[in-house]
Amino acid sequence: DAGVIQSPRHEVTEMGQEVTLRCKPISGHNSLFWYRQTMMRGLELLIYFNNNVPIDDSGMPEDRFSAKMPNASFSTLKIQPSEPRDSAVYFCASSFGGRQQYFGPGTRLTVL
Amino acid sequence: AQSVTQLDSQVPVFEEAPVELRCNYSSSVSVYLFWYVQYPNQGLQLLLKYLSGSTLVESINGFEAEFNKSQTSFHLRKPSVHISDTAEYFCAVSGTSGTYKYIFGTGTRLKVLA
Predict the structure, then answer these.
(1) N or C, where is chain A less crowded by C-beta within 10 Å?
(2) φ, ψ for residue A101 (rounded to 5)?
(3) What is the pLDDT along chain A (112 residues), one digit of tens a residue?
(4) Rounded distance between C-alpha atoms, residue A78 and residue B55, angstroms
(5) Which of A31, A32, A34, A26 has the alpha carbon at shortest distance from A3?
């Protein structure tokens, strides 16, 4: 089992640029979660999907953030335009039936 | 709504000493409880979970946690820690039905000293 796959693992970009983070959940899982982790705010849930449908996006900080899940095996989190305060580690996690979330290795984003 | 409180942000402990990391939760519905561990520059890994049944749950590397419904707690314990246990530990709670959204605590950084 490959686990949850995230790409890229590291991203450095300049303020104003568009950033796209990618996630491939574990095959067979029907829920997908996007988190952001910073020293100041800890681990925050941004959005989650159930059966490819966004269920709760109340954690998305602003309209600059958007997420999609076009099929059961792929999701993206996009930031446009990016700002320095978006610098963080972004995690994707997936689960089946909600009893345990499996986390990916994360994408470390630095916005200069 | 649910919430999780991890009162200790950092816990230093000497190697081979016991440790307890505290977790209290609040919920109006039945809950699942989890402890995750995060090693430096890595993702979160499940350490142990309480779903139902025995209130004492154990991990393969010697940690245990006990679900105490009356005290709404799920404290994590290990009788003898190793240097390799140095990491950040997160407690999480979810409902037992519906959306299964996790609420995470703020984490406890365990530092094991030689």
Answers:
(1) N
(2) -95, 135
(3) 689 999 999 999 999 999 999 999 999 999 999 999 998 888 999 999 999 999 999 999 889 999 999 999 999 999 999 999 999 999 999 998 767 899 999 999 999 9
(4) 41
(5) A26
What are the backbone angles phi and psi of residue B85, rounded to the nearest 5°? -80, -5
- By the CB < 8 Å criterion, does A97 face chain B? yes
Q: Which residue of A has its CA nearest to B35?
A: A100
From A4, A48, A99, residue closest to B51, measured CB to CB: A99
Tokens of A63: 């309209």
- Name the closest residue on chain A to residue B47, using Cα atoms: A100
- Cβ burial of A6 (10 Å; 0-12, 13-18, 19+) is buried
Copy the structure tokens of residue B105.
Answer: 């605590």
Given an 8 Å threshold on Cβ–Cβ distance, is A48 in contact with B101? yes
Q: How many Cβ pairs within 8 Å bridge chains A and B?
A: 47
Say if A42 is an interface residue toward chain B (CB within 8 Å).
Answer: yes
